[in-house]
C-alpha cells in the first residue's frame, strides 16, 4: 500500500474557461512545482488513442488548451493509474467536478431522453437528469461544439433529436462485428433507365461489397445474409436504421430488409447536397461512382484583378480598390449574372455539357459576398498592403494553372509597383531630419526613421528589428524629436526597456537629443497614481523611461495616460503572452506603438504573436487562432504555404536589416565603438558610497607614495564593485540566476553575448579580473547552455594555441580573455563583437585588446562594446580619457596620470552620482 502511495502523482489543476467554452489548463505537482504543459498532456490523455495520447494537444509554454469535448475525453475512459487530479482552488474543483460528472452523464443510456430543443439549441432539464447547472453548461458546450463540427444545420435538429434518443451521438458507438454497413449510390444503367439506385451494402474485412441476391431483396435481413454473417444480423439492422434516420432527400422505412431504393436526378442532387455532407461528417461510409467522386472534388475558377483610379503619393494608401471578375467552369467562361444566379439558387451539383460538377455552396456564397463588398468600395490600398482584406482576395505568389486555385487574384502592374514600393520601405516620403538632432544619420538609418514616421502617420504599429549595432536607438530618438516637435503632441512618449539598458537610454537621449526632457520612472521613490499625473502636468516631460518590471508593477498608474508613443526596447521580453508582465504592457495605451528587437522574430512564432498584439492589437486574432493557422502548420508540418502567408502578413510591419546586407556594408565603418551604460543595483550603490567615504578619510592622512598606492588600490576595488558586489566582498559563487540579480552589468554582458551567439556571430569578452571572467562563464553555461573557454595567464601555451585555432574555425561562439594575457599577440578575427567588461585607464591597452579582432584578415564589421557604470568612477574616468585624448595621447599612455590628479579633480572623481 505504501508503495502505491509513493507512485501516486498528484496534479493540482488551474482551469480557466473561455467565453467560447474552451479551457486553458495548467498544473502544479505535489511538491508545488510547475508541471510542463507537454507532460501534463500525456497524463491527461494517458489512455486516449484518438488524441494520440496527448501528442495532438494544443500547448504553449504556459498551458494546455482544450475544447470541451477534448476535456470530456480525459474522464470518459480510463485515467492514468498513478495520477490523481484535483483543483488548485475551489473554483477549479467545481470545474473539475462538473467535467467528470458531464463525462459520466454523457455515457448514460438515458442521457438523451432528457434532451429538449430550446431556441434552436439542445438543452437539458437539470432537475430531471440530476446534475448541477455547471455540469449542464459543460454538456451544452460539448453538444454545441459537436454540431458546429458536423454538417448539421439548425433546421435538422428536430430530426436529429429522435435519432440521438434512439442511437446516441453518431459515430461514438464502437462496432464489435468484423463487417461494415455502408450506403452505395449507383448511376443509371446504359439501357435507357434514368433512375439511380441507393442501397445498403455490407463491406467485408477485405473490402468486398456484398448485396443480397435479386430473389432475396425483399427478404428479412437475417434470411438474406450469407450463413457466415447471420449472427451479426441484429447489429447490421441497427446500423442501417441509424443511417437511414439521417436521410432527408427521401422518406424511406426499410423495416427489417436491406435498403434498395431507386432515385431520380433531382433526388440524387438533394442526396449529394443534403445527406452526403452529414454522412461524411459523422463517418458513415457512402460509396459513390468513381466518376462522381472525382466530380465532387472539381473546382470552379474565379479570377479577379484590382486597380485604383489614381495615385496621390503617400495618400494613395487611402485609394479605394476596384475589381474585375472573371469566372470559368471546365474551361468555359461564365458571366457574372450566371454566377450570381447559381449562388442565389444555392446550386451545388452542376451539369456542364455531359459532365456533372460539385461546387461547395458555402464557398460560392462567400465569393458573392466578397464581390459585393469589393464593388461597394470597402477596401483600400492600405487594407491590401497590410493584409486586412479577406485572405481570399490576398494576391497569391504562385499563380500556376496546376494549383487550380478557387480564386486567383492579381493586381494591375501600376498598383503592384506602388504596393511594392511601400512594402519594401523604399521611396517613402522624407520626414525631414530634425535640426535638434545631434548626430548624422547614415542613409539606411534615414530610411528607418522615415518609415517609423510614415507608419505613425498611417496609424500602424511598427517593429524595427535591425541587427545589433545598426543604430535602432538613434533612429527611434530621431523619430521622438519629430513627434515632439508637432503642435498636436501634448503627452509624453514612453520607452520601456530592461533594467540593464536604462542608463544607456538616458545617456543616448542626452547625447543625441539634449532638447528632449526626460523623466526616469524607476526606483522606490518614483511618483505613482495622482503624484504621477501631477508630475506630467507640471514637468511636461517629452520622454518617460521605465523598465519592464516597473511598468508591470505600475500598470494602473501608466495605464491612465494615453502616451504619444510607446516603445518596447528588446521587445522579446513580452514573448510569453500569458505572463503578468506581457499582459500588463500590452494593455497600455499609446497613439503609436513601436517594438525594437535585434532578434529575428520571424523564426520565433509565439514571440511574433505577442509583439504584434502590442504594435497592432488583434491583427493575428487570438493566440489559439494564430497557433492553429500558423504555428502548428509551420513548426510541426514545415508548411511552405503558411510560411509565405505569414511573411506576407508581417512584411509591411517589420523592418529588418542585417550587417551582412551588402547595401548596408557600404554605409558602415569598419569598426564601431560605443559605451554600454549600466546602473548599479541598490546593493552596489550602498557599498560604493560607504567605501568612498572610508577612502576619502584615509587619503586625508596620507601623502606622497602612500597616497598614490591607496588611489590605485581604491580604483581597482571600485572597478570590481562595479562588476559585481561578490567580487568586492570576496564571496563564494552562487547560482547564476541569483548572481545576475545583483549586477546589471553582468546581466547585460551575459544577455548580449547570448544574443550574439544566437545570431550566429562570435564575440570576445575582455576583463581584468579572473573572478569576473569565471562569473560570466558560469552564467552563460547555466542559463544559456553555452560552454565558454577562459584564457588567463596561467593557461599553458599549447592549450592557448589550440583554443585560438578552434575559435577561428568557429567551433565555439564566445571567448573570454584576461586583458593582460589575451590583450596582445593573438589573431582572433573570427569575432565581430568585442565586449570590454571593465575599463582600463590606459586606452592603448584596450585598443590592443580590441585589435585581436580588428586587424588584417578581418572582413566583417567589428562592433566594440565598452561597459560603463553610470555615475561611478568608470563614467568619470571615461570622460577624462576623452578630454585628455583630445589634448595629447601621450598624457594617457599609462595609468600613472590618475595618481597625479589634483585634490579637486580627485574629489570630483570620488563623488558618486546616483
TrEMBL record:
<dbReference type="InterPro" id="IPR014001">
    <property type="entry name" value="Helicase_ATP-bd"/>
</dbReference>
<keyword id="KW-0378">Hydrolase</keyword>
<dbReference type="InterPro" id="IPR000330">
    <property type="entry name" value="SNF2_N"/>
</dbReference>
<feature type="domain" description="Helicase C-terminal">
    <location>
        <begin position="745"/>
        <end position="910"/>
    </location>
</feature>
<dbReference type="GO" id="GO:0004386">
    <property type="term" value="F:helicase activity"/>
</dbReference>
<dbReference type="Pfam" id="PF00176">
    <property type="entry name" value="SNF2-rel_dom"/>
</dbReference>
<feature type="domain" description="Helicase ATP-binding">
    <location>
        <begin position="453"/>
        <end position="618"/>
    </location>
</feature>
<protein>
    <submittedName>
        <fullName>DEAD/DEAH box helicase</fullName>
        <ecNumber>3.6.4.-</ecNumber>
    </submittedName>
</protein>
<dbReference type="InterPro" id="IPR001650">
    <property type="entry name" value="Helicase_C-like"/>
</dbReference>
<keyword id="KW-0547">Nucleotide-binding</keyword>
<dbReference type="InterPro" id="IPR022138">
    <property type="entry name" value="DUF3670"/>
</dbReference>
<keyword id="KW-0347">Helicase</keyword>
<keyword id="KW-0067">ATP-binding</keyword>
<dbReference type="InterPro" id="IPR027417">
    <property type="entry name" value="P-loop_NTPase"/>
</dbReference>
<dbReference type="InterPro" id="IPR038718">
    <property type="entry name" value="SNF2-like_sf"/>
</dbReference>
<dbReference type="InterPro" id="IPR049730">
    <property type="entry name" value="SNF2/RAD54-like_C"/>
</dbReference>
<dbReference type="Pfam" id="PF12419">
    <property type="entry name" value="DUF3670"/>
</dbReference>
<dbReference type="GO" id="GO:0016787">
    <property type="term" value="F:hydrolase activity"/>
</dbReference>
<dbReference type="Pfam" id="PF00271">
    <property type="entry name" value="Helicase_C"/>
</dbReference>
